[in-house]
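Late entry, written up from scratch paper. The run itself happened at the end of the previous shift, but nothing got recorded in the book at the time, so transcribing now.
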Amino acid sequence: MAERKNNKVGVLVGAGAIAAGVSLLLLNTGTRTKIKDSSVQMKDKVSNYATTVKEDPQGTKNAIIDKVKRTTAITKDTVQKIQQILDNQGQEIKETTKDAVDQTKDIAKETKTIASTAKDAKEDFKEAGQDLKGEMKSSDKNESDHHVEDDPVHHQ
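Output as recorded:
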């Protein structure tokens, strides 16, 4: 019972809001004129259509059916074109994605190769550095093995 009362209140509030809106619209002279002109045009169109239907009901029916058939054909054609576009775009997206994945795999392989090369180069540099240190130590020992005496040696 309370639910039914709430429905009635809602309908009354809605009707009151519509009545208030119409009243406000009708206060403005320009709006009132536009509403009147639109109503007259609509009445004339409906009247003309009713006259046409009365004079040739079969022809009117056929005209409506033809319009519906043309609209349906146009709609089907449009849907097919949209589907073709989506299919083509989908295929292009798949191909582009596959290319991107392939390129990413190639880049990953190249990155691994570069990292491996850099690691090898690092090891080579370490070895070269150790060899250089060893040579420098050995050349330092050679220099220290030679000493100069104060008395020259005379050969006879």
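The mean pLDDT is 81.
(Scratch paper discarded after transcription.)
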